[in-house]
Fold this sequence. Notes:
About 20% of the residues lie in helices and about 30% in strands. It starts with a helix and ends in a 6-residue tail after the last strand. It is of the alpha+beta class.
Amino acid sequence: MVRKGFKNLAIGMAACMMLSQSFPALAVGNTEGHWQKEEGSWTFINPQGEKQKGWIVSEGAWYLLKEDSGILQSGWWKSPSGKWFFFHTAHDGSFGKLCTGWQWIDGYCYYFEDQDSAHLGELLTAGAKDGYSVDEDGRWVENGKPVYEQGKGLLSKEDGQQVAGVSRSIPEVLGVNRSSSGGSGRSSGGSSGRSFGSGSGSVSNSTNNQQSSTEKQKEDAEKKAREEKEKKEQEKKEQEKKEQEEQEKKEVFSVLEREHSGVVNLGFDKYIVLSFKEGRPEDYKVEVDGTDITEALTPIDTAGKLWKWESTVVSPKNLTISKKDGGEEKEILSLNSGEAKEAPARSFESSGDLSLVIKGKVTKEELNYPSVQAGRERTKESRTTFDLSEQEEKGIPITYYFKAFPVDFKGENNGKPIKYELLAETEEQKKWFEGIDSISSVSEGSLYGLGNKNASLKFTKEAVQKTKHGELGVVNIPAGQDNLKSQGWYQVKIHSSYDDSTITIPLELVSQDKLVLQQAPESSTPKQGETIRFMAKAPGKMYLSEFGEPSSKLVLKKPDGSSQKLEYLKDFYYYDGALLLYGKSKDEEGSLLTDQPGQYVLTVKLNGYGKIKQRFEVFDGKAKEEQDEKEEKARKRDGEKDRGSFDAISHATSREVLTKKKPNLSDLPKLGEGEEKDLSISYDLLTNALLLRELGISNSDADLVAARFLRSRGEKYFLPEEGKKFYDFTTYFAAYKDKAAEGGETLSLADFLKTAEALRRPPSSFYRILEDGSLSKELSTEYLTGKKAPEFTGGVAQPGEKMVLETKDNEYLQEGKLTLYLDKQNITTKLSSGSYAKQFAILEEEGKIIIYPKAFKGKAEGKHTLILVREGYQTLELPLSFEEAVEKQEEKTEEKKEEKTEEKKEEKKEEKTEEKTEEKKEEKTEEKKEEKPEEKKEDEKSEKKETVAEEKKQEETVNSSDVSRGEKENKKPVGKEKPEKKKIIDSSSKPTVKKKKHHKRDVMELSFPGEDEEVVDSYLRSLTGISVNRIPYTETLSSSLKEKEYYLERDSEDRRSTVLLSPESFTKATNIISMKADGQSMALKAYTDEQA
């Protein structure tokens, strides 16, 4: 490259860029406001006195102010759309300006767009400009290698070096001064002499007269007046500070840190905040204008250093602190500069446990993965104070490995589990792996849905072992579990009790059946630029919407060897059962895709399918084809839909991730994004967060809690303590302001509620904002309304034994008032206290609840949740846990056995690998012959074991017939207490599906003709999941079905007899209905009326 050519390029010209794809014209006026320097960083203050954020124009040049802090951006910056930009880093009058044209940075030369107004400032990558080529990183290359000149150009980071004796000038802009002190930013030595003209904003020296003498005199006079004003204000501040220091020296008795003590106005409430140097409020007597408020103070932080009082007067005058023993020593804090003289506070009505409900934007991640503590999804905050001593969370680095897992229509793979390998080489990583206690999954679902969730996947762990890849721990997840059957992408969250943190890693289930792509006969001789049709098929599917998934990938390899990634709707489209590959792109330029005659290779990777390649030939000649109007309308209609986004990194099969305990500000959805949900928050937690923010001493938890409130839009409601009705918070805020304008006492909640009207339609459900800013699971309003439920103890038992919980509030256990649910709240999980199938008992006088093993339906092990519902009380969730009581000696012997078996496994693996290298072909044929008889033997052994175990159980039932009823309840459920083994419907009964009208809507009715009614009822009672043609359905308690829902219909004797299913997943072909109950799966071939 000729260096002279670089000098002629427009380096540093004014450029512009906005976050959206639309771009403003270059002729943009300067942004109103002024520059201000804070702690060495530049910010821009708008006319409203707020920090400007985002893009601004100064002197025709564009600058970027960071969205989170408002600080001026410098150096490299990547936009949300993935484009790179660079902002000047040198303090030479151009600091922070957007770079355009050719630029030398860190010894390499780059080109930034300087012509196209829609893409100004974007870094050019893998292309050419002015006859020069750049690589994929944007660096100028010659002969395939980047050109490098050490020390040339700008530094990629801010240039903090400064030559001794030289002051770098502060760039001024038209009508704007960046100096925080009001100075011109010129050199103290007077050598620089730089200034900016008032008209064009261009730099001129002292000899260039572009202003009239009158304007110059006026400007100098304004500048002098401004400097004098600032000087007086500074002198006043110094004098006040000096007086305060002298006063503090005089006061022998001083317990407050005055920097963080005083009146803080939140707009809708006013507080007096006290920051204690030592001790707590109970050690002193605290008064406001003569009224003792000591007992009314509530804490802000967990250490008990910061306290607050909700002021009952608009302008309190003085706060006085004295020793509790009544000594003469006092500390007086002036709250309103001694001007206000209001009546002392007379009441201490605080907001107490008031709850706010706001409309907040949340991410799908938050909705699918609520906060977890000790392996359980949370429902309420554990505290309303903040731990200011907490250090910033760093997280533990965990590297994972996984492969796409092939599955059949049941979501299974011949009994093989899904495997995750986790690198565990450090002690911290090993402890984290050992502490893994829960795993959940969420399918990425359709393009627009949340996907299906399984909050508690079954799993096993293999101990950490040394391998050639390092020390690895293996997690095995049995395939075919609920909501882990359909092919596609899933997000799997693994939680560890070691530090109560999680990692989120991907999983892809791919179909064992291959996708079929065949070139259509009508497209057998395509010319350059013609559309090519491929018939796309997948076993068991009528339509392939996966072509439109953001995660799908299509790559076209051309005859010259070059490859191009294809974009949906622009380069290809799926329509009428065919994949349309456009020879000419559907963009503004209309560039040719099939621009070369010869052999092409189309590589297709769809969501939930393995990768396939399809070869085809394009012939020389001009394209001759007609436009299909219906297809074009459909394509444009699909283009208007939000198809989501795809992050390739989040689907990486091997990657290092950091464990995470809680969310932070970066996890909140950006403005205009996210889903709107009702969020509930403790008023005390919110005010503590806002007070810390106003005082400038908040932490990440307080910032996140405050941000959720400050970013909320729309209606806001509040619920008084132990209340049942919601009231409009905005109306209360307006009344509070009106009352404050009158002076005197503030408006109390009690006075407001005397005349306020309750909402007619309160929210039906909400997500609770917790103390770290994370969200609970979705809760019904009953979790918030009414009195607080009492505390319980107990809830721990050995597997198979009864569970006992105790409380001191006997009245809460009043007979007939309490309803109990296990693990989730619906009609199928409601516990019965009847004599026929007694699952629990309430001993009111003793204050006990007893849960019998039969309530757990054969799963009296692990962790469970008991849900208590009583009218007039808040719904309560209690943890239940079955824990093994094993002696240490038994544990040691078991560990030794496991170690021996693991050693044997390793030895066998090593022997097999050696044998394979010697005789691969022979061993393959031998394995095929030997596998089948070995499998049969193992199956016969397992069947024998099951029959023997069943016979033993029956014998125990006969022998225990004379045992008292109380002793039976303490044993594991056997005999008649357990359902008969015949749970699965007999395939010979030929279950049928009929279409019928239900609530004026077509539904599919699954029935079991010829099957015993009791067997059907028993099976359907224990049903845990249904899918139709591999599409999962969810149970609903309402008989008015929505899409992909099923309802269990009952007969006249209240037995579950038939299943009603929504019809959209059924086809005219054979329908496979997969059903799972108590861990037993079965697949039924159901025939519709049309087939019959």
